[in-house]
Design a protein that fits this description.
Order of helices and strands: HEEHEEEHHHHEEEEHEE
Strand order of the largest sheet: 8-9-11-10
CATH class of the largest domain: Alpha Beta
Helix content: 25-40%
CATH superfamily of the largest domain: DNA repair protein Rad52/59/22
Length: 228
């Protein structure tokens, strides 16, 4: 039960981060034929923003996927994918598989295969209610006006979003005066060294300003601290 509550809270935090991105994370989805729009125009989150939010909250090591099968046709690639989320050290949950597809453009099967996997992954994430504003039709207003969705996030979501915005502007030290509070970053201590764990790529400037250095061998950001 505790794991379920934790995952539910994490999903809410991911959605809060997606909302905080605003219009830049939203795309208009059109079906075109002979230069004309056919069908209904839809609005959804750009995949990279979804994955960035998931990595920020869950951390990359706590989710993974596997390709169940793939098919390559004359004009498109279809891929079936299973998504796994870690809820305990050695326990993962999976809510089934989803199928994604992508058109082959100029014979580039590799990009079409990647796109099909991405499409399937977003469908898998939607089963956990990640990116739910897109499926509730709340992103049209965001895209057209640049404002936040009409639906309000719960209070703890708003606080998380506010904290994320603040920490993206400046790295504020914690109570011990040594480590900054940075959204999506956690710290591991070992033998007088602190390692920044999480989605550190977008936060490297903040880590640099806090005295962290890049370790090329271990591919992580670290900082030496005084051991009391």
């Amino acid at each position: 039960m505790a794991e379920t509550n934790t995952l539910t809270k994490q999903v809410e935090e991911i959605n809060a981060e997606l909302r905080a991105f605003g219009r830049e994370a939203v795309q208009e989805i059109k079906m075109m034929k002979d230069g004309k729009v056919i069908g209904q125009i839809r609005y959804g989150y750009k995949p990279q923003y979804v994955f960035d939010a998931v990595n920020s909250v869950l951390l990359p090591e706590n989710w993974r996927y596997e390709v169940v099968c793939k098919e390559i046709f004359d004009h498109q690639v279809v891929a079936e994918v299973r998504l796994y989320i870690r809820v305990k050290d050695d326990e993962w949950i999976c809510k089934g598989s989803q199928t994604g597809q992508m058109q082959i453009v100029k014979g580039n099967i590799g990009d079409a295969y990647k796109g099909a996997i991405t499409d399937a992954l977003q469908k898998c994430l939607s089963l956990l209610s990640i990116g739910t504003d897109a499926y509730r039709g709340l992103l049209r207003e965001v895209y057209l006006s640049g404002k936040q969705p009409a639906a309000k996030a719960p209070n703890h979501q708003s606080q998380h979003t506010k904290a994320s915005t603040q920490t993206n502007k400046t790295a504020k030290p914690t109570n011990n005066g040594e480590l900054p509070k940075i959204a999506g970053i956690k710290y591991q201590h070992k033998d007088g060294i602190v390692v920044a764990v999480g989605n550190s790529f977008d936060k490297k400037e903040l880590l640099k300003s806090a005295g962290f250095k890049w370790d090329k061998a271990d591919k992580n950001w670290y900082k030496e601290v005084m051991v009391h």
